[in-house]
Structures are given as C-alpha cells and as structure tokens.
Design a protein that fits this description.
This protein is 43% helix and 11% strand. The protein is mainly alpha-helical. Helix 2 packs across helix 5. The N terminus is likely disordered.
Length: 215
C-alpha cells in the first residue's frame, strides 16, 4: 500500500461525513415528509340530518300507541322501515296529509285509516327515543329485525271515542280478529305482550297460540 492511499481514504471519509451533515440540515429545514393521499384517513361522514317534522311525528306516534319503551322501539322501527320502503317521510306516512290525530279520521264524511296514531303530544322522553330511532343508534332486538314485521295491532277493547260514523274509532280487537286481519296485513310473525306483528306476504297461521315472542 502506497502512502497516498491513507490520504485518499481520509479525504473520502471526510467528504462522506460532510455530506451527511448537509443532508441532516436540509431535512431539518424541509421538515417531515408530507403524507401521501393514500395514507390520509378518510373523512368521517356527517350523520344524516333528521327532519324536525319526522321527529315530532314519530315521537307523537310512540306516545299514542304505547307507554312501554320496548313496544315503542318496535313500533318506531316498523314506521321508519315502512316510510323508507314507500319512499315517503315519516311525517307523510303517519299524517297522510291530514295532520296529527287518531289513526282513523273522517274527511268529507269518509273514513281514512292511517298507518298509526299521532293523537297524543310528544314527551321529552319520546322525542329523545324518536331521535335515537331515526339516527339508528337504537334498534329493536335482532330477533325482531329478523322477523321483519311490516305492521302491528294491539289486542284491546273497543275505543271509548266515537267517530263520525257512530262507531268506536278503534273496534274491539280479539285474538280471532287478529288472526282474521292476516288477509289484509300478511301472516303473523310474532308478538310482544298484547301486541301482534304481521309481515306482508308471509304465510298465514291458524291461531296466535304458537307465535314466538320477538324479544
């Protein structure tokens, strides 16, 4: 090895060290590398807006149909699903263009039976539950959703309120009538307490005795 080789080696080492120092200061001045677009987290979409009239209509429906939160959730879910399927608002589905009131109303002497009652004013609790149902943060049990009911009826005595036709606004609803209503609403798919649920185009059943409880 000649004496010039150590000098050359030292020159190369010094140049490399200087280059590293330059690169370090350059990176410090530039800052961290900009993240690629693919690395960026996708923006979180805003939740769908809830229409005020839908909120009030659904809350009134919950108060008018039952006080039990489990029943309210079941009925509210059916109302929302039906409105979506028919491509109308919840307000339009429940009022049918005739404002709030009982399910059965009389217009020009003709009886109109709407999807559900909105007769009672909404409470604060019902407004909160309606908002949760509309946003999808509250839903009925999985078993209920799998049964996919599309309408409902309560086993009850006749309403004390009399309509313009001289008959109770809500007739007495016995288990026999509940079974017979399958010709209008589809087959019975389950029950919760005194409430019975139908699904459009489901097969009819001969009685209510074997219906599953949808909880």
């Amino acid at each position: 090895m000649s004496r010039q080789e150590p000098r050359w080696t030292g020159f190369v080492a010094g140049t490399a060290a200087l280059s590293l120092v330059v690169v370090f200061f350059a990176l410090a001045a530039i800052g961290p590398p900009t993240a690629l677009k693919d690395d960026a987290a996708p923006p979180v979409p805003d939740p769908p807006a809830i229409r005020p009239d839908d909120l009030v209509a659904l809350a009134r429906c919950l108060c008018s149909e039952d006080n039990d939160p489990a029943i309210q959730i079941a009925i509210g879910w059916i109302v929302i699903q039906t409105a979506r399927r028919r491509r109308v608002s919840v307000f339009e589905l429940l009022t049918a263009g005739h404002g709030y009131g009982p399910q059965k109303v009389f217009v020009d002497g003709k009886a109109i039976i709407r999807f559900a009652s909105t007769d009672k004013p909404a409470t604060d609790t019902a407004m909160l539950l309606a908002a949760a149902l509309l946003s999808g943060t509250v839903e009925p049990p999985t078993r209920f959703q799998q049964a996919a009911p599309t309408s409902f009826v309560e086993r009850s005595k006749a309403s004390k309120r009399i309509g313009a036709d001289g008959h109770p606004l809500q007739p007495e609803t016995t288990t026999q009538r509940i079974v017979a209503l399958q010709s209008d609403f589809g087959g019975l798919v389950g029950r919760i307490g005194r409430w019975y649920f139908y699904r459009n185009r489901a097969a009819s059943v001969p009685s209510t005795d074997e219906l599953p409880v949808l909880l």
